[in-house]
Structures are given as C-alpha cells and as structure tokens.
Design a protein that fits this description.
Bound molecules: 5'-deoxyadenosine, FE2/S2 (inorganic) cluster
Number of domains: 1
Helix content: 40-55%
CATH architecture: Alpha-Beta Barrel
Oligomer: single chain
Length: 358
C-alpha cells in the first residue's frame, strides 16, 4: 500500500508513470484507491475547466463499413445489420438542429464507407462550416490517407477522433482481421496531429484478451502521442460478432482509467461515453466525477439510432432519445456540474490558436 501511495503521488505531481508503476497500480485498485484517484482527477479537471462539462452533438451518418473488426456490431461481416446512410442534406439538417439546440461541436461519425468519397465529405464539412462558422466540426470516420485528412482539414474540419484501440501489436491482431494493423492506425494519428487537427485517441476497457500490461502500454502510448482528446469506454459484446460471448469491461476499471488519464494529461478533453452510460445507469455521471469533462449526446435522426449499434443495449436509441439534451442537462446539474455550449477546445490548443479559433 505504501508503494501504491507513492505511485499515486508521483502520478499527481508529475503526470508520468513508468510501465512498472502503472501495472501494480492497476492490479491493486481498491475502492479507497479509486476514490483517491477520482478526487485528484476531478480536482485537476476543475482547476482547468471549472465545473464545466462540454457537449458534442453526435451524428452517426452511416453504418456501412468496409472493415470487419471482431468486436464491432457494424462490421461488414454482420449480415443482420440493417444498413443506412444519411444524405448530405440530412446531415447538414441534423447539424442545424443541433446548432439550434445549442451545440457548438458537431461530430460526424460513421463506418468506413466508400460511398462518402473525399469530395462529398469536403462538401459536407464546408456546408456545415458555412452555415455555422462558430461550430467546431469533428470527424470520426476511420483510417484515411494523409491527403484525405489534409483535404478534410483544409475544408474546415477542426478535430478528428480515431481510437488507437490497443497499442500492443499482438493484441491488435487478436481484435482485427489481418488487413488492419496497429502500425497504420498509429501512423494515421501522427498524420492527423501533423496536419493540425485536435486529435483524439483511445481504447476499449476490458476488450477480449486485454491484460493490465496492454493497458499500461495504452496509457504510455497516450502520454507519448499527447492527444487533445481521449475516448475510452468499456467493451460491450454485440450478439452478431466474434466476441458475442465475451464479458463486458468493468465499470470500476473504466472509472479508474478515466482518473489516471486525467492525471496524465491534465487538460485533455475526456468524454464520459455512451458505453459507460450503457453498463451502468449513472455511468456517465460517475465518469464526470472521476475526471471526465465531455458528454456526447446523440443527434442522429431517431429513426436510425437503433441501427448504429456497435454493441448491444446501447442507451438513447428508443422513444426517450429526442429528450437526450434535457436529460443530460439534468443529470449533470444533479452532480454539481454545468453543461456549457461553447466549442470547448482544449485550453492548451486555445492558448496557441488564431483569432478564428483554429
Ligand atoms: N463495445 C464498446 N465499444 C466499441 N466500439 C466498437 N465496438 C465496440 C463494442 N462492442 C468502439 C471502438 C471504436 C468506437 C467508435 O467505438 O473503440 O473506435
Ligand atoms: Fe439520452 Fe438521457 S441522454 S435519454
């Protein structure tokens, strides 16, 4: 226990741990230790961002995907998935609805769908930015070439989310078919950073075959990449995937990792994810209390939400879905935080940014 206190103090004071410190910390997570981590993490989040929680309006615009990731419900091999695509007009319309609700970040997320050629994505990005110049546009559309990323950035996209999934090459190969590689994925992240995107990486907690060593390497990878955003959430099995019979990732471990990530990357934008809200009814609130500072309610048309099922039992896909924004506002204010509707850039980024905010 003395050792663990030393490790937590070092993490708080320096934001850095070695692999040999992270592993015992993860192996010895007691309720008291998780509480200490959460207190320190939420206090450092408050130092930088006060009691603000940023919102991002998520538009899941296509569930077609050319990839076959073993964990994902919209993998191309899932013949039971009912596929859909939104048109440019529907996407831009959805973004405008979000704007009217107060969203100043629109996240366009989809499978890797060749229907949306670069030119079409550029068109969509330009249309949203032209209609709402004060909105940030975040993309989450997978692995693309340097040139494609550059075209999206030049069209006005501000941020890009691409979870690295797992930093360990062997573990990566257990979660993905052979045509996908951790090496390419990590290269994509470095390309995005080089182009100037505010970049988000991340991983699933409790994914099949994941070890504490893997998680330690994920944390070290994040520290090295130094992204503006990090997305983590529990793995949740989907019935039509290779991993249907694996168990979901744990709430406690996910919360502890949110705290550790906050302490390692103090100004990072860190969502309490929908997956966290799916494994526990108050998961997102607990995530905020553990150091997260972003929520990403769904803005997709209610009619398609059930179809964008990366995992089973996803919340906010039924009748209640239109009420997400109000529901979240109440939930967040009940724990003493406040949802704010500005762009919510990483403060580190804002310090170095131009007047236009890019
Ligand atoms: N459980 C939890 N998260 C998942 N994702 C994909 N499938 C699942 C699942 N079964 C995550 C991946 C991906 C992100 C968009 O969703 O980490 O990068
Ligand atoms: Fe969707 Fe509460 S956030 S119903």
């Amino acid at each position: 226990m003395a050792d663990i206190s030393f490790i937590i103090n070092k993490l708080t004071e320096t934001g850095s741990l070695t692999r040999d410190e992270i592993i015992p910390l993860l192996e010895n997570l007691t309720p008291e230790i998780r509480q200490t981590l959460a207190e320190r993490a939420s206090s450092i989040a408050r130092e930088h961002y006060g009691n603000k929680v940023f919102v991002r309006g998520l538009i899941e615009f296509t569930n077609y995907c050319k990839n076959d990731c073993y964990y994902c419900g919209i993998r191309c091999g899932n013949k039971n998935a009912e596929r859909y695509r939104l048109s440019k007009e529907e996407i831009v319309g959805c973004a405008s609805c979000g704007y009217d609700l107060g969203f100043r970040t629109i996240v366009l997320q989809g499978g890797e769908d060749a229907y949306y050629k670069d030119e079409l994505m550029v068109d969509i990005i330009r249309a949203i930015k032209a209609a709402h110049p004060d909105c940030a546009v975040t993309l989450s559309i997978g692995e693309k070439s340097y040139e494609s990323y550059k075209a999206f950035f030049d069209a006005g996209a501000d941020r890009y989310l691409l979870r690295h999934e797992t930093a360990d090459f062997d573990h990566y190969a257990k979660l993905h078919p052979a045509n996908l590689s951790a090496e390419n994925r990590q290269q994509c992240l470095y390309n995005l950073k080089k182009i100037g995107f505010q970049t988000g990486a991340g991983f699933m907690v409790g994914s099949p075959y994941q070890t504490y060593e893997n998680i330690a390497d994920d944390l070290l990878f994040l520290k090295k990449l130094d992204p503006e955003m990090v997305g983590i959430g529990p793995f949740i099995p989907h019935k039509d995937t290779v991993f249907a019979d694996f168990k979901a990732g744990g709430l406690e471990l996910t919360l502890a990792l949110l705290s550790i990530i906050r302490l390692m990357l103090p100004t990072v934008l860190l969502p309490a994810t929908t997956a966290l809200g799916t494994i526990a009814p108050n998961g997102r609130e607990l995530g905020i209390l553990a150091g997260a500072n972003v929520v990403m309610p769904n803005l997709s048309p209610v009619g398609v939400r059930k179809k964008y099922a990366l995992y089973d039992n996803k919340i906010c896909t039924g009748e209640e879905a239109a009420e997400c924004m109000n529901c979240l506002k109440n939930r967040i204010s009940n724990i003493g935080y406040e949802i704010v509707t500005d762009r919510g850039d990483n403060i580190r980024y804002m310090q170095g940014s131009t007047k236009e905010g890019r």
